[in-house]
Design goal:
Organism: Trichoderma guizhouense
Family: Belongs to the short-chain dehydrogenases/reductases (SDR) family.
CATH architecture: 3-Layer(aba) Sandwich
Shape: globular
InterPro entries: NAD(P)-bd_dom_sf, Sc_DH/Rdtase_CS, SDR_fam, SDR_oxidoreductase
Number of domains: 1
Order of helices and strands: EHEHEHEHEHEHHHEHHH
Keywords: NADP, Oxidoreductase
Strand order of the largest sheet: 3-2-1-4-5-6-7
Oligomer: single chain
Protein name: Short chain dehydrogenase/reductase
Length: about 300
């Protein structure tokens, strides 16, 4: 099998850096992108001809993103996989969040990946194949207090991946969101540069006990809450994308949960939702004026990708 070419965003630390290392170890090629990428990853160029570096700010305007994608495409002559990995996280209450805080959270975690996807799709369509992958979060399954904006952005990202797959699979293009559990990374660290994270506001007194409780939860045995290894995340992501290793023989899914902690949260969420659906069913149906009959032509679009093969 010919080596694949990956474009990885947010590749200078955490899961992104682990992805770069793992892609190279499997004999594939990688365009590692991010902020200050030459400064942080320049040493890798002397070790392999399969890596190129691209300075890329995911929150840049769409026209700049399109130019960067064209530049990236021309490095190795094509790209097989866009790995939308760049992300950030922070904590504040809904009442205390400034517009700058919210905009930055969504620009990095949602709008940036959306723009990168829009920019690369014409290239993937022209070559008749491609894969768009996203590093999302188990927070997309559960909204934690004081992390509502992060959960909102990641829920949007995972939903985007699901909808994207249904739009482009007929064109030979696939999409997948990795809903990651806890990993020890730099995710909560402030961003630097032109699109630096705005400083967090001092929490309103009424919310300080709640904020302290959430911080205390993460501080109490953080390794127990974050069992994941960035290196194992990278290995698993590439297995899924290539259909190898632990993912071999499994049907393609547009959302893949990574981490036993994330799996536990997702299972609990679905079990709780089913209980509520049953309890509130009379209320849900109370708005009907006519009999509703499920239709197969709708079901084919709403079915969870991969479930039809199980």
């Amino acid at each position: 099998m010919a080596p694949l070419v990956f474009l990885v965003t947010g590749s200078t630390s955490g899961i992104g850096a682990a992805l770069v290392d793992h892609i190279l170890s499997r004999g594939d090629k990688v365009i590692a992108s991010g902020r200050k990428v030459e400064e942080r990853l320049g040493h890798l160029k002397s070790k392999s001809d399969n890596i190129a570096l691209l300075e890329l700010e995911v929150t840049a305007p769409i026209e700049e993103i399109k130019t960067k994608i064209e530049t990236a495409w021309n490095i190795f002559g094509h790209i097989d996989v866009l790995m939308n990995n760049a992300g950030m996280s922070a904590m504040t209450t809904i009442e205390d969040a400034s517009d700058a805080y919210v905009q930055n959270m969504f620009n990095v975690n949602l709008f940036g990946p959306v723009h990168l996807t829009q920019a690369i799709l014409p290239f993937f369509r022209a070559q008749g194949k491609g894969c768009v992958a996203f590093t999302s979060s188990s927070s997309s399954w559960m909204a934690l207090p004081t992390m509502s904006h992060y959960s909102m952005a990641k829920a949007g990202l995972s939903s985007f991946a699901e909808g994207l797959h249904k739009e482009v699979i007929g064109l030979g293009i696939r999409s997948v969101a990795f809903d990651c559990g806890g990993f020890i990374t730099n995710l909560m660290q402030p961003r630097e540069g032109a699109h630096a994270s705005p400083p967090g506001a001092e929490p309103t007194d009424a919310y300080k006990p709640l904020l302290g409780s959430v911080i205390g939860m993460f501080s109490n045995d953080p390794m127990g809450l974050m069992p994941g290894s960035p290196a194992r995340a990278a290995l698993t992501m590439i297995d899924v994308i290539k259909g190898e290793g632990v993912a071999a023989g499994r049907p393609w899914a547009s959302r893949v949960i990574l981490g036993s902690d994330a799996l536990d949260s997702a299972r609990n969420r679905r079990e709780d939702e089913l209980k509520l659906l049953k309890a509130w069913a009379p209320v849900s149906a109370n708005t009907d004026e006519r009999k509703y009959t499920p239709r197969d032509d709708l079901r084919k679009f709403t079915m969870v990708t991969g479930s039809e093969q199980l």
